[in-house]
Amino acid sequence: MSENKALVPVEQRNVEFYGDEILAVLVDDDGQQQIFVPIRPICDLLGIDWGGQYRRIKRNVVLSEALMSVDVTSTDIDPSDRRPRTSVMVCLPLDYIAGFLFTLNPDRVKSELRERVILYQRECYRVLADAFLAPGIAVQTTDEGDQALAQLHNMALVIAATTREMLEVRRLGMDNKDRLDAAREYLRGMNKRLRIVEQRTAAGPLTEEQASEIKKRVNLIAQEMVKYDPSKSHYQTVYAALGEEAGATSYKFIPPKGYEGAITFLDNWLKAMKEQEGKE
């Protein structure tokens, strides 16, 4: 891990991922721009002990060399609060995130978090790369007719970066069966992501009104689930189920032709819960 002064980001984003918000920062280090991802927030989202993971990363020759301290601004603190809004966080370059995630064994976490860990292993890297391509690499367009070409170009960059990441994963010594299986799942997830992009380039995003209707139903279902298990928030569970049903990492990316199916899926879920509640 770098012992130098913490790097200062030139840009910071919260990227939506199946109801979670994953923090990513763009850093300019001596003229070279690179994306870093704080590790502790990911551990918190997955219900994994940060201290144990930090020690494991420090023992890994490849990951420990890539660790970097980055100044990160908290966005959930009230401006009038006296707590510092900027703190130093331990980060890994985006290219190493999948490598870190593949060191996690889904069978060693709480049963209710197992599928969540697998979901992160499959798709987290690509979603972050897709949402946070470095300026000067991704292309933008003001001509609506060129939008599909621009998105395909940017996705090609993500695929190239993903391939590089898979090579990095192999450097981490992932030679046992469980980790190789995880790598295969990662590649299956890449194909799924490509299908999602094809849908988005062909159809475009939902309207704000449609997105609002989906979000409203997700909130209602999560609130109903809290009645049965008030120990945790259930929004992530609902978003993950919706994502699997609609083939999208965010309700905002559900193609228009899949809107009615998503609404029906959520309405039926809510109806079933209401009926079950009525029987009790």
Give a verbal description of the structure.
This protein has 280 residues and is of the alpha+beta class. The chain has 2 domains: 9-203, no CATH class; 208-279, no CATH class. It is 54% helix and 14% strand. The chain is built from 10 helices and 5 strands, in the order βββαααββααααααα. The chain has a 5-stranded antiparallel beta sheet with strand order 1-2-3-5-4. It is globular, with a radius of gyration of 20 Å.
Short descriptors:
alpha+beta; 280 residues; 10 helices; globular; 5-stranded antiparallel β-sheet; 2 domains
In short:
The protein has about 280 residues and is α+β, with helices and mostly antiparallel strands. It is built from ten helices and five strands, in the order βββαααββααααααα.
In total, the number of strands is: 5
Question: How much helical structure, as a percent, in the residues?
Answer: 40-55%
Largest sheet: 5 strands, antiparallel
Give start-end ranges of low-pLDDT stretches: 134-142
Distance between the termini: 55 Å
What class would the helix/strand composition place it in? alpha+beta
Number of spatially distinct domains: 2
- Report strand order across the widest sheet: 1-2-3-5-4
Beta strand % = 5-15%
Mean residue pLDDT:
75
Order of helices and strands: EEEHHHEEHHHHHHH
Which term fits the overall shape?
globular
